[in-house]
Write a structure and sequence with these properties.
Layout lengths: L4 H49 L2 H15 L1
Helix pairs in contact: 1-2
Length: 71
């Protein structure tokens, strides 16, 4: 069964749309993951600083927040 030029063009356009959508989804997920990692690094840095300064209330609250983020 032969395909017409219109069918071939339609298939090419459809595949291009899928590639663009997949790329956008990948970029969006990558950005979201980077934001999560950045937030965890910030909280971990604050946690380490509070351990060094021996601020027990801050240590408890940050440990709880880190535990929630990791889950």
């Amino acid at each position: 069964m032969e395909t017409t030029m219109e069918e071939t063009m339609f298939r090419g356009c459809r595949e291009s749309v899928y590639l663009v959508l997949n790329r956008r989804i990948f970029v969006d997920l990558t950005r979201k993951l980077a934001n999560v990692i950045q937030q965890e690094e910030l909280m971990f840095g604050i946690f380490i600083e509070s351990v060094i300064t021996k601020d027990e209330d801050c240590i408890r609250s940050m440990a709880n927040m880190l535990a929630i983020c990791i889950m």
